[in-house]
Specification:
Mean pLDDT: 95
Bound molecules: adenosine-5'-diphosphate
Order of helices and strands: HEHEEHEEEEHHHEEEEE
Shape: globular
Strand content: 25-35%
Number of strands: 12
Largest sheet: 7 strands, mixed
Radius of gyration: 18 Å
Strand order of the largest sheet: 1-2-3-7-6-5-4
Helix content: 25-40%
Length: 262
Amino acid sequence: MWVEELRKLRKGKLIGREIYYFPEIDSTNRGAHDQGRKGAREGTVVLADFQSQGKGRLGRSWESPAGLNLYASIILRPPIPPKVAPQITLLAGVATANALARASGLDPRLKWPNDILLRGKKVAGILSEMEAKDTKTQFFILGIGVNVNWPREDIPPHLLEIATSLRAEGGREIPRTLIAAEVFEELEQAYTSFLQEGFSPRLREEWNRLSWINGKRVTVALPDKTISGEALGVDTDGALLLLDREGKTQRFIAGDISLRGE
Ligand code: ADP
């Protein structure tokens, strides 16, 4: 079974040192919260073949067909304040993009804060959640969904314009074991550096090099308004920088962005 192979590949490593596998689960992030509360060690992974209620951000759902794609949630216990924990989402984007590039030969790019795109369509998404008490991060869940072997004809019509898969773009199937192993390895290296160096200039440069949005006109939707401008990339702390119509640079630490312009 592919999970056995993955366990072997991750032996002696941090991420994937322990893998809880479910043929079916409601949501791997939800399962990871359970494990986190029970005291699972950092690097523990919850993995599933199928999610009946895969989650996106803000209550949105993540389409999770059985047996084709990767649905993994990683439990981390970073000794950092909750305020800077979202930087982990950005490093996970860089790590996932690099891993997918290596495994597929394609050219994945990043859309702030949490999407990985191929030719402008979402091939993977990251859903970060955390449990914190006061100023202490108890644990951090890094949920990663990658559309691996989803045939284009199986992608639901309402997602065809915005979603794709490695197979739809590259024309070949790739074993999920390979994708998971590459993603976990890249993540482990990026996370280890992050714990030593924080959100380093190197990480920032790498994010901006992989950015799909830099130089493009984007709209940021905030709870109460929208702001359009040219995306300038991420700042030294991971905030999104936008050059607005008046020529002023604005910073965003959270929000939804679209590439529609106005
Ligand atoms: P975003 O950050 O792009 O707003 P989310 O991270 O919240 O999106 O992910 C949920 C959204 O992604 C859904 O509302 C839907 O539009 C889209 N989506 C759902 N399932 C998939 C999938 N398997 N692959 C790509 N996009 C998806």
